[in-house]
Amino acid sequence: MRFAVFVSILIFTTLGATVYGQDVWTLQRCVQYAIDHNISIQQDVLNKRLARYTLLQSQLAQLPTVNGTGAYGKSFGRSINPTTNQFVDGGYDFLSLTGSANVLLFGWFAQRNTINRNKYSLDASQADLDQLKDDVSLNVATGFLRAILAKEQIHVSEKQVDLSKAQLAQTVSFANSGRLPELNVAQLESQLAGDSSNLITAIANYTASILDLKTLLNLDFSTPFDIEVPDVKVDDEMTVITTKPDEIYREAHKHFGSIRGSEDRVAAAEKGVALYKGNLYPQLSLSVQAGTNWASNYLSYQPTNQLLGATPIGLTSKGDTVYQPVYRINTPVIPFNSQLNNNFRQTVALNLNIPLFNGWQSQYAVRQARINLATQQLNEYNAELTLKQNVYKAHNDAISSIQKYAAAVRAADAAQRALDFAKKRYDLGLTTTVDFLVTQNSEYTAASNLLSARYDLIFKLKVIDYYLGKELKL
């Protein structure tokens, strides 16, 4: 009896450390937390954001390109004045301002094909994200059901321990009164020890399943955590199995992210081929340019009436010298604004770019785009084939699980009835302890198998819901 008390204390301590102060989580809460915190999902969210920016960039590329340049500097020595285009000696300051704009008028729809390609790529990124969320939800549901099974297994093991304790107490009473030998007490003590070991193992399995579930959720291991065991009606869940596999496949084909993503990538690859083929042909664009400049030594010549003297310029036929009057000339620097206005120039041009030879880069780009298209088409076919195989396998697994569950129910009922009869016979002394323990262990095994079959069936039915696009809930 002291051993039984020790085992009870150990089990109580273990259970208390496992469930004390825990926060209870439902399947829906686990799924939502995993979607919000899963690292792979967060990476796919960033990939989708990059795809959105790429699409926006290609859309804005339809607008004209506008550039402006400016230069200010100082020149030394003999050089050409950028304003007068004359040689000058000495230093001067200069300023140059230029603006240009360019717009593609016709380029064989290259920009439109680029936009459409990037749009399909964005849709494919969204499809990948949706598929990943669905996969994470299914993985969480799998881990959640495993944890429920482990938790239910604890209750079965506790029931077995309680039964063994009661039988041990009764056997000790019979042995003290002389009705049964001490051997029966030893056999039941051994049985209790084994059942207690099974209970501790069940508790350890539940703890391990909780750690696995926390890993799926990306939840800190030290966070208080326990799961809610829902009352799942298996019979209600089995209505989904009436759907035929081909109907499940058609429904999954409509919403499955892997299918939508592969279709979008094929469409993007088709636009890529059109894009690179357009680069083989001439492109017509319009360019506009305007500019002005200023120089610190750009002077204006302003004559005055102030006579400075006369300068001989020649001789007459009589030998007299001819003089030319010299007047003062003012040479102020032309004002800054006046120079900018006077030097303002504009250019408008139509540009025809004809690709003649670029090392066959454009031709090989088209060939690579066609290979990429063929690859994406094969990926689409493979995604559809994989989905169909998985759907038919999931449907077959669900049918097999129904049969296994039905057999486990019958076995558990029979084992429980056998245990009830064996207990009555044991209480009356009509059966041996060994026979009773064999029947008791058979009932424990049948109950454990029933639990496994039940939750395996629930999981297989949830997989069908997963392909049908239904919310995974219990």
Describe the structure in brief.
With 474 residues, the chain is α+β, with helices and mostly antiparallel strands.
Q: What number is the mean pLDDT? A: 87
Q: Main sheet?
A: 4 strands, antiparallel
Task: Indicate the proportion of strand residues.
Answer: 15-25%
| Radius of gyration, taken over Cα atoms and rounded to an integer in Å | 45 Å
What best-fitting shape do the alpha-carbon axes yield? elongated
**CATH superfamily of the largest domain, please?**
Outer membrane efflux proteins (OEP)
Gap between N and C termini: 42 Å
Q: Name the poorly predicted regions.
A: 16-20
CATH A-level architecture of the largest domain? Up-down Bundle
- The CATH C-level name of the largest domain is Mainly Alpha
Number of DSSP-assigned strands: 10
**Tally of separate helices:** 11
Summing up helix and strand content along with how strands pair, one would put the structural category as alpha+beta
The largest sheet has its strands arranged as 2-5-7-10
User: Any idea how many domains?
Assistant: 2
What does this molecule look like?
The protein has 474 residues and is of the alpha+beta class. The chain has 2 domains: 2-298 and 333-468, Outer membrane efflux proteins (OEP), CATH 1.20.1600; 303-331, no CATH class. It contains 11 helices and 10 strands. The chain has helices at 2-19, 27-37, 39-60, 110-177, 182-217, 234-237, 245-255, 257-278, 336-342, 361-427, 433-468, and strands at 24-25, 65-75, 79-80, 87-88, 92-106, 226-227, 283-295, 302-315, 321-330, 345-353. The strands form 4 sheets. Strands 2-5-7-10 form a 4-stranded antiparallel β-sheet, covered by helices on one side. A two-stranded parallel ribbon has the order 1-6. α1 (2-19) packs parallel to α5 and α4 packs antiparallel against α8 (257-278). The relative contact order is 0.13.
